[in-house]
Design brief:
Layout lengths: L13 E3 L5 E3 L4 E6 L14 E8 L15 E2 L3 E4 L4 E6 L5 E10 L23 E10 L9 E3 L15 E3 L25
Parallel strand pairs: 2-9
Antiparallel strand pairs: 1-3, 3-7, 4-5, 4-8, 6-7, 8-9, 10-11
Length: about 190
């Protein structure tokens, strides 16, 4: 008698990885879902369907022209890595605290039990929330075209008197850049003579 693993049990799935805690705008974030049946066995089918949604926290300041409470489906790519593991990759575009939701559409029948596959119905996503967490999405890398500078030091200064320049560093989505501890802003004075 051959005993095969059962269908994936969403309550037995394990979620791990940096992408369920932190992410940066414009940079690929990822996490792993380890699927298991209700007895802890790794299912042997590879057609699991997951959807990922991000929603800014309600207390986050609304960005001009954007609804801060809108839920957006992010383009998440699911990659099967063998052993029941799925790597989920997504690309965040808004810097703030978000709720991340993972929905799962269970396979109705074990693959191979029927020649006819169950069709996936979109309405069923609403009842299949299997994971929810808060992700701190910060500004991405500095973007030169969105960075500005102003101050009396830009127009010139006298020898022995400091010129002051304020630099407003932004990422490609125009979020203010907060420098990491290992980052520094360097300026160079060029003599035009």
């Amino acid at each position: 008698v051959t005993i095969l693993p059962g269908l994936t049990d969403s309550a037995a799935c394990i979620f791990e990885g940096e992408g369920i805690h932190t992410a940066k705008c414009g940079e690929q974030a990822s996490f792993t879902i380890v699927t298991k049946d209700k007895f802890g066995n790794i299912p042997d089918h590879v057609n699991e369907k997951f959807q990922v949604f991000l929603q800014p926290h309600a207390h986050v300041k609304q960005v001009k022209g954007q609804d801060s409470n809108s839920t957006t489906r992010v383009r998440a790519k699911s990659i099967y890595n063998e052993n029941g593991e799925y790597k989920i990759e997504y690309l965040p575009r808004k810097a703030c605290l978000h709720q991340l939701f993972v929905f799962y559409l269970p396979v109705k029948k074990r693959p191979g039990w029927s020649l006819v596959r169950q069709s996936y119905v979109t309405d069923e996503w609403s009842s299949s929330l299997i994971f929810k967490c808060t992700v701190d999405i910060s500004a991405g890398r500095a973007c030169a075209s969105n960075t500005t500078a102003k101050g009396n030091g830009l127009g010139g200064t006298l020898a022995g008197r400091p010129g002051v320049v304020a630099v407003n560093v932004r990422d490609r989505f125009n979020h203010p850049q907060v420098p990491d501890e290992d980052q520094e802003l360097a300026a160079e004075l060029i003599d035009k003579d």
